[in-house]
Amino acid sequence: MSLPPVEIKPLSQLTLGQDWRIALAHDRPEHLVIWITRGQGRLLLNGTRRGVGTHNALTIPPRTLFSLELGRQGIAMVALIPDGTDVRLPVGPRQLRVREVDAIGELTGIFEAAHREMTQGRALAQDAIDAQMALMSVWLRRQIALPEHLPVAMNAAARLSARFCERVARDHADGLSMAEHAAELGVTATHLTRACKAATGRTAADLLTERILYASRMALIETTVPIQDIARHLGFGSAAYFTRFMQQHTGQTPTALRKAAR
């Protein structure tokens, strides 16, 4: 089966003007490369929260929990690269703070050239985009090899938080509580809560709730699956419990959210 094409788009097109699409903790099925050209904010990645700003390059592998709060004035370009691609991308999540002028110009040029191919509809456009992604791969691997981009050692709280985030990305629809996830990790719920709070500024329960909320909103807006089936798929005991969950976190019922989106 052939892979879907690479997509290049501004961050504003990815979010469609709805901040929750990027600000809620979630994961995606494809590789993301995000190039921030203006603004600053906060990033959740690899189980830790850190500041993010202009000329930061983010590489986010498939099924990696993350969130990005960049603000209304922030500008970024995003490459969505299907899993299974031949393009050599970083294995783990990375945040690169780029300061060298030539390197900034190179990555900006790659994104601009790929985006032109996306929007102009010329012959062999996808081949040209694939070639630009190969250049992006080289750029990323060169940057990662620089001494200033060596990864920082994680403390015990961050390591535990990262392990929990991996579970949330993989198992959020299983109906497990935060305490049950903690037990699977071999720690108490209290210890897991403290570790996640120290590493991310969010509790473990917050992270799990956000991932479920993101999945709920996407299913309601992007599909026609009946609400009771969405509730069951996401581990809710009943459609009524799912409705209370959505009202608590969005102020709207699932039916109202779906109607508003359409």
TrEMBL record:
Signal sequence, start to end: none
Protein origin, superkingdom: Bacteria
HTH araC/xylS-type domain: residues covered: 162-260
An MF annotation (GO) of this entry: sequence-specific DNA binding
Annotated keywords: DNA-binding, Transcription, Transcription regulation
Record protein name field: AraC family transcriptional regulator
UniProt organism field: Tateyamaria omphalii
